[in-house]
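ok, trying the design again with the full structure, not the truncated one.
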């Protein structure tokens, strides 16, 4: 286990001042949040969470930095938080997780309300943000899925193209039309994105 030293911090701050942060792992000239930390601490290009760093912060950094727009990911505000992450240890993980979850439910998710209203599942989204339960989140996810499914249309070859980022996906096939009662099968082509 490597302690996070002043030298590591200075290397990290220097790197962040002169390099951009990409989505995904990146490379030595443009490394993600955790890779930049690891480059400063060990010289290795990896997005492993350092042993002396909070796992909650590490996992949140991966998810957030890959989801946020390029300008936000490379903003001075975000980059100023990164040198504070290493050395946070793992003693207060439950407290960190509680703060992160409260922020997600109270700040982040409610900001998406206008989008969900336009897409037809605003009621379920609002209820999810109020109830903050797994059941309410499932109902909102199902409503979002149904709204998306209603907007998809097959092309002349009966193909439906969609792009979805994430580790796990759920597919549902619902045959439509007067003569369709069942589907014989479904072919799924999956193409990996990024380097994670």
């Amino acid at each position: 286990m490597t302690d996070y030293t002043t030298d590591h911090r200075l290397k990290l701050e220097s790197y962040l001042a002169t390099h951009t942060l990409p989505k995904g792992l990146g490379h030595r000239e443009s490394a993600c949040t955790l890779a930049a930390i690891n480059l400063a601490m060990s010289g290795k290009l990896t997005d492993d969470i350092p042993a002396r760093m909070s796992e909650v912060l590490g996992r949140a950094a991966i998810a957030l930095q890959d989801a946020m727009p390029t300008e936000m990911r490379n903003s001075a505000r975000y980059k100023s938080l990164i040198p504070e992450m290493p050395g946070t240890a793992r003693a207060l993980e439950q407290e960190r997780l509680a703060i992160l979850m409260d922020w997600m439910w109270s700040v982040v998710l409610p900001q998406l309300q206008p989008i969900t209203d336009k897409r037809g599942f605003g009621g379920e989204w609002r209820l999810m943000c109020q109830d903050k339960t797994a059941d309410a989140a499932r109902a909102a996810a199902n409503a979002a899925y149904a709204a998306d499914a209603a907007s998809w249309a097959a092309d002349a070859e009966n193909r439906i193209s969609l792009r979805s980022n994430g580790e796990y996906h759920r597919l549902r096939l619902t045959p439509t039309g007067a003569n369709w009662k069942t589907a014989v099968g479904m072919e799924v082509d999956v193409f990996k994105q990024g380097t994670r």
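Keeping the full-length input from now on. Residues 134-151 form the longest helix (18 residues).
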